[in-house]
Design brief:
Low-confidence stretches: none
Bound molecules: arabino-flavin-adenine dinucleotide, P-hydroxybenzoic acid
Structural class: alpha+beta
Helix content: 25-40%
Amino acid sequence: MKTQVAIVGGGPAGLLLSQLLHLSGIENIVLERRSRDYVLSRIRAGVLESGTVQVLNDADVGGRVAREGQPHEGVELSWHDERLRIDLEALTGETVTVYGQTEVTRDLYDAGDARGAEIVHEAAVKRIEDIEGIEGSTPSVVYEKNGAEHRVEADFVAGCDGFHGPARQTIPDSVRREFERVYPFGWLGLLSRTPPAAPELIYATHERGFALCSMRSDSISRYYVQVPASEKIEDWSADRFWEELRRRIPADVADTMVTDGEVLEMSVAPLRSFVCEPMRHGSLFLAGDAAHIVPPTGAKGLNLAVSDVYYLHRAFDLFFNHGKSDGLDGYSDQALSRVWKAERFSWTLTSMLHDFPHYEPFEKRMQKAEFDYLTRSETARRGLAENYIGLPF
Ligand code: FAS
Ligand code: PHB
């Protein structure tokens, strides 16, 4: 098979790129290792930047998020029972939208169905070949389905295969530079059929550890508690989760929180900061978690995948429809510029809000001083707000 762009990975990055390329008349195929149900079963991000919503609208998949997404004008930080509201709207003129990544992915799959998209499931990509433009060679992707190998030839390959996919490894070790920080803790998440504990997100710092109160709708809540990196999900019952969560969030929220609803999902996610440079090698372009990972504290993971795809789509459109390659040549630097600033914000907020086992009393005082500074300085709050709503594309 021959196409213009072969996309490895059918998560949000791959599906969104496929949709945008289609709208620009650029042929593409998506090769996804898992079934559609499996992809849709993943519970991940919950907060969309306004830039992300704009790209979804550009991709003609913004209808449901406009109807069902919840605009949020502020978020809260708490330090034991002290609460601090960051008024995103007043400080930046922007808001964020609460709308689950699962729903974004569902909207993208539905749009793919409507256009008869080439999305091949249970197609595990084994190799990505000939991306270095050697005379007479054609980039190709080899995948396995139903026990047989298949080859797709393409002008370009988009590696949208997440942190554990093969695309990043296709960039030679001599070219690839990786930057990583693994945190000594993870997030234990719980999704429940209960009304949210508070109208806005609460990022709670406590000596017992970090906790986050989020939501998906008026009847579905999403909560997290910081746990040691080695924590096993089987060591946690829902009751134990609720009890720990309520000890870490402000008492007036804990006292009114509904905890007797159906538990829909529980999972542990490790936290790491990671960046791969460059995000392009020859005919291969990386986008999303294939190229970078952020701790979810800043709600940047999915939103960074979207800005990568925004840049990459524009670059392919310039090349295929206008015969110019400067978008492709500039893609890696352009995407990395925004990635590194989001890495900085996510690392800063994670460092401020979490309990680090190795922190001395001095570091703990620094954490409290950060909170106090935010409480007293509108300038500091504006700095946090402009990063949280998303820096310009
Ligand atoms: P994805 O990992 O979503 O998609 C990659 C796809 O490639 C997958 O479907 C995978 O099956 C496929 N693939 C892999 N190898 C393949 C192969 N060999 N062949 C074919 N296909 C292959 N972000 C937030 O903003 N907030 C959060 O709360 C949050 N929580 C998270 C929790 C967890 C457990 C994880 C892992 C991530 C979380 N993230 C969160 C980040 C997450 O939302 C990602 O940023 C987002 O999924 C990025 O999308 P993709 O780049 O498409 O990668
Ligand atoms: C979520 O609702 O899953 C969520 C929200 C904000 C974050 C991380 C996760 O920073």
